[in-house]
Amino acid sequence: MKRHVASKTLLYPMPAVLIAAGYEGEIGLCAVAWIGMVSGTPATIAMGLRNVRHTLPLIEASGEFTVNVPRAGMEASLDFCGIEAGGGAGKWAAAGLTPAPAASVSAPLVAECPMALECRVTAMHDVGDYRVVFGEVVEIQADEDVLTADGNVDVELLDPITYVPGTREYRALGRKLADAYSVGKPLKERAK
Fold it and tell me: With the CA atoms of 45, 148, 107 and 69 taken in that order, what torsion angle do they form, in degrees rounded to the nearest 10?
């Protein structure tokens, strides 16, 4: 039997990423867990940022941002970027992180993150105390050590951090259960 759960922000797992933006020499960095892919054509990300985040005005002014995927072991830096207000080079240094140039956008990458998605803003919508930012993915960069021989990202090598709302924990991904677009085929055949 199911029962009522008080929190309304539970969805498991949530990616835990670092969002970077820059405008006119100022750079910002913040941690975000309310983010996900919302379209494949074109590849589009949506994320919810509180209106008080220092990085948000930089995204609004530049129209660009990067989504940097930290790996297990970077929890302290990630958490610091979520609990520390403000921005600038001092925040990057205190987190032990380094801004690096992106290939297709003006926003910096986080050099220590093994994967980054470069995005251009396509829309913004206010929802309560948040601004939902939609960004088209225009470039993806990944370190060689997380790529397979055929050039795809190996999620086990990437070892991304996830966030668990409610209990406020960072977790690594678990074991593989099945191959998507395959495990359901017998049910599809049976449904015919």
Answer: 60
